[in-house]
Amino acid sequence: MAAEEKWKGWASKQHKEAEDGEEKEPCVPLGRQLGEAGRFAYAALCGISLAWLFPENEQSSFRTEFIEGFVKWLDLPDAVLPAMTAFAGGLGGEGTETFTEILLKDPILKENPLLITQDLLSFSLRDGYYDARARVLICRVSWLLRIPLAELEVLEESLLESLKEQKEEESETAEVSRRKKERRKKLKRYLLIGLATVGGGTVIGLTGGLAAPLVAAGAATIIGSAGAAALGSTAGIAVMASLFGAAGAGLTGYKMKKRVGAIEEFEFLPLTEGKQLHITIAITGWLCTGKYGSFTAPWSSMLHSSEQYCLAWESKYLMELGNALDSLLNGLVNMMAQEALKFTVLSGIVTALTWPASLLTVASVIDNPWGVCLHRSAEVGKHLAHILLSRQQGQRPVTLIGFSLGARVIYFCLQEIAQEKDSQGIIEDVVLLGAPVEGEAKHWKALTKVVSGRIINGYCRGDWLLSFVYRTSSVQLNVAGLQPVDLHDRRMVNMDLSSVVNGHLDYMKQMDTILKAVGIKTKECQQEEKGSGSLFSPLAKKSQQAASSEARGEENTRREEDEAGGE
Fold it and tell me: Which pTM does this prediction carry?
């Protein structure tokens, strides 16, 4: 990959300069090497982006703490702090383009704008954990600077490799260890001054628990993994435990030891062999005999992260449901009837009395297993919430994706997390496909408190089966899997999948196509250069842009009202 080669070449150059310049002044954080105008524009851009991404009152402490720490990181004078705090508070959004232009004109960034992404990553990891909100901010700033998201992935993988090498240092030969120890004093001074947060001329990262080890480890993105490894394996082990969960095992180390309430089965199955600084958890909605008899089958082509898991839950009941769905669609209801039902649903006149009598006579085939799984999915979602809140996955951002009852698991997981204090910064993005949950905006508002990135609702207007199972419910006309969720928030992205999904079972059968439609990377397209710095497909980005325009319109309206009131 061109981006990876370019980055490795630059990192190698910095590594050589660090080794050759023993008598020179140690390197400082990359952001601090910018000119005064560049550093001001850099901080202002981050402040404005924070206000746009996280305008809620409950996010004010995060915005304030981030911008205060960032002003120190860039060694800006204290006099600029009020201005930066104002930017982070929602003022000055119209200056985004101006600050972007000023930053890109800095001589240091002309050769490699990616240095901003790298610097933000180092700053975000300085305390030993990776907040989902920080990653969303990095993606946002990178997008403004026209840096592809793929290059952030390269940086994260580079850092991860350095952590692994630190952990394995004890097994290296005595000669290699001796040579590294000779450079230890020089490199240690170089790294701590170059990367630790500096306040009042004193390095304060040394007493931050895991902060100093992680700061040292993060130096691999500046001087190469060999230099970072010189700080010793103890640092690497500590960081791995912090980022990746107990003993670095992550979610694979968790298995429900005893029955929790009504839940009989709950386990994480690995979809990939790698490790990454952000993870993805996929949740299957039902099982059926044959090709789709396993939880992992629908997700075989997904490659959103190098570290992906699939949640195995209540397989006995999901298999019963899947077989019931198969019997209903392939035996009891012929294709002609299904097309007629689809047209009826699309017409919007479906009520409990308009369903065909022939279908109602076999309703028990689906109603009983559906009702059981409906209840159990809610319980599983609540249990998943407490697993994530306990940081079993480590201190890393999590993306959740699920279809049908798997999407319902995610919905109740987020609702449960939202009830806990200080639960922000865990979830990055969520993708709910054909979700059998309430579709009214008021029920989704709580999700915005805990999702840092995007909430994607993939729906199909002609999904007659989903409409049928809700035929006796008061919410049958407000099901998220049948329509857009009218929530006015920049996180909310509604995607009409009617051209891809012909019926509810297609969420499993057409998963590869659906993943591409919603912008999730698959193995088939992993070599493609996205160039957008975004998770989303053009359709999703169109929805995102509309939300951005609406948000800016509301902000301008509020400003005009305030000015009118002042007069």
Answer: 0.78
